Amino acid sequence: QLAGRWFLVGMASRCSYLAEHSHRLEATTVMVTVLDGKSLAISTFRKLDGMCWEIRQRYLPAQAPGRFLLKGRGYSGKMDVVVSEVDPTSFAILYYQKGQSISIKLYGRTSRLSDAIVDKFEQHIRAVGLSDDVTYYFPTYGEWHLVPEEQE
């Protein structure tokens, strides 16, 4: 259901780095590949200092369907990832939780989503106690939309 190309449309997080650098948000594209039928290979493409960067992660399957584990390096530990709601043709809402800290991301098959989907995302944000002042929407312009639909 999650395989293929997605655009990061919005994010809600109390991350101080995000708050301080929100004016520098860039269009972000994500390629999801299902490995061994269970884990997910995630390639995130974003611009930083004028260059396209690829960040690779692997989401390992957890105990229940739709739940994954993202292992951090060293002290950073692990993060729980939960697919909260998904329509494979249009959007996905994922929760990222590490300790008491939670973030929510909205992904779309296109970089612009309907108001109804954005409203749904904002309901999820309020449900976990986050607010508009920690919600960020990503720009829809940028070369990263040229990331191939299928990677070799």
UniProtKB/TrEMBL annotation:
GO terms for molecular function: complement binding. Gene3D superfamilies: 2.40.128.20. GO terms for biological process: complement activation. SUPFAM superfamilies: Lipocalins. PANTHER family: COMPLEMENT COMPONENT C8 GAMMA CHAIN (PTHR47304). It comes from the Eukaryota. GO terms for cellular component: blood microparticle; extracellular exosome; membrane attack complex. Residues 3-138 form the Lipocalin/cytosolic fatty-acid binding domain. It comes from Sapayoa aenigma (broad-billed sapayoa). The lineage of its organism: Eukaryota, Metazoa, Chordata, Craniata, Vertebrata. This is CO8G protein.
